[in-house]
Structure formats: structure tokens, C-alpha cells
Amino acid sequence: MTTPAGWYDDGSGNRRWWDGLQWTEHVVTGRPAPGGESTASEPTVQEPTASEPAPEAPVPAVPITPPADAEPAPFVPPYTLAGQMPAPAATTSPAGTTYPAYGGYPAASWPVAPSPQPATGVPVVGIIGLVAVVIGVVCACFPVIAIAGWALLAVGFVMSLISLFLRGRKWPGITGLVVAVIGAVLAAAVSFLVLATSSIAENGDSPFAAPGDRPSSEGDSPTGREDPSTIEGAEMVPFEELEVGDCLPLVEYTDDDVIFDLPVVPCAQPHTDEIYLIFDVEDGEFPGDDALGVTASDGCLAAFESYVGVSYDVSELDYYYYQPTKSSWNHASDRTVQCILFSYEEVTGTLKGANY
To answer: Which of 117, 119, 268, 309 is 20 to 30 Å from the Cα of 96, by its Cα?
Structure first.
């Protein structure tokens, strides 16, 4: 039901023309006295301008006679002017949202879609990344599967990082990143310790090359237990650089000595040892110290007479050899045997063709 067009009190003490849909700019000043008569002698009507259409003739409203005991209720227009708006009354919609009411009319009540709530689930990518990181750290600690472990650790790190950009809880991704960083450091340290421990256990204090059954000299050795590098005229030469004809001073080694090189002196200088043969044994798995010693001794003995000029049985000279250790065999591919002549007295010059 709509309010018919007519002059109504607009709440400011004036009467304004209501066209049935909205207020117009046509105003009659002065408040009507009780009973419908205005307090002014003659109401002043603001006529519409030429540009505005003249208002339609007012249609008199049909009066409604209230009961005798009822108090007259003030007229409430459909809309109130700006600035005259009464305080809003709070109204709650069925959905629980509160809307104000204006102009005496209750606010419309209709369900409103709730705002999206933040996701509370856990991203699957984060969980998978965390599991991959943990498994990767464990696998990376074992040298046999270390490569697969490091690869899995990298995949888990990337997945944990991606999960931070997805909606949902962030703790799996953050935990995965922390475990990946700490686990990588731990795995690297463990791998290093395992490799170092296995290398020490395998190598022990074994020298790079081990001497065979070296003949002992009579009496005290001329050089005693001095450092071979301090021998006058000596040059420390690694085993792989030794050559046939190199002369060596007498140096007494013990089983605890680690031998990586030998002192080489000019053959014109007094010495006791001389290299007369260098050869490689058959490749393959390490045969063991004893079996390798037999092979080295047989090879050195076979070349003795051709170098000295007489057979080993009648010669005053002796021989010994250096053979690969298990460590040098496995880690340095060492297959070389050095055969060395030994004189019980110091000599000068070469022993090749000594004939004694």
C-alpha cells in the first residue's frame, strides 16, 4: 500500500508535496494548528519554476476516524529527508547479521552468505615433503644409499617450500625446511665420519709400500735411526717415481713406519742398496700380503743373475723388495714391486755387473 499524493508535514515544521512516490521541492511554510488550520494567516506556497512541471492537483485524502479512546498517532511519511533520519534500530537477520532500520520501517531480513573463513586443513604437499625429508636424511647417512638419500632430501625440501604458498596450515612446510637444513648438515657429518672411519679401519697404519724380508746388516747401521730426509745428498722420491739404477743409503725401517717415499743418493756416494728391477704383478683382487710376497720374491730372484752377473746362490749380495699394501692396492691401484740389491758393506758406484 502506498501513501497518496498530497501535502504532508516533512518533520521540519513545513508541509511538502508528496507525489505518491517521493518528496518534491514544493514546500508550504508554516505548521498547521490542531484541527488542520495553519497558524499563519495565509500559507506561502513556493510555486514550481518554469522548468519544473506543475504538481498535480491534490487529491483530498479520505479521513479515517480513530476510536474515541485512541490517541492520535503522528503521520510517518514513507521517507524522511536527509538530516532528519531517526536513529537506526538494530535488526537481526535470520542468518545472524544485524542491519539498521530507517524511516520507521524495519530493515529487510534476508540470509547473507558468510565471508570465507581461512582454510584450516593441512596441505598434502607439506606432509609428503616432511616425510620425504625425514627418509632422505636417514638414507643420506649410509654411504651405500647416500645418493638416493640426498636426492630424496632435495625433493622433500622443494615440496616443503611449495606448501608454504598453499592455503592451509604451514607447520608441515616449516618443519620440513628446518629438518632438511639440519638433517643435511648432520648427514654430511655422519657420511664423512663413516668414510673416515672405514678408511682408517681398512688402512690402519699400513705404509704405502711394505718391504719384504729385508736382510739385516752386521753391527750398527751407519745411519742409525736418523731421518732419511736428513741424509747428506739424499732426495726423497715417491715409489711411483723410482727408477732402475737408483742408489739408496742404508735405512733401518720398523713395522710401525709409514713409508711413502725412499731416499735416493748419487751412486758415487757411499750406499748399500740399489734398485735393479721394477715390475707390475697381475691385476685383480688383492691376493693378500703373503701371496703377494711370494710373487714379488719370485720375480726379483729371476732377475737377480741377469743384473749382477752371478746367480744368487754364489753372490755376496742379497736382495729384498717393496710390495703394495692392501690400502695402496685398493685406493691407489698400486700393482708395482721394486726389487732392491743389498750389500752388507757400503759401496760406491753401481752394483750392476758386480759379478760377486
So the answer is: 119
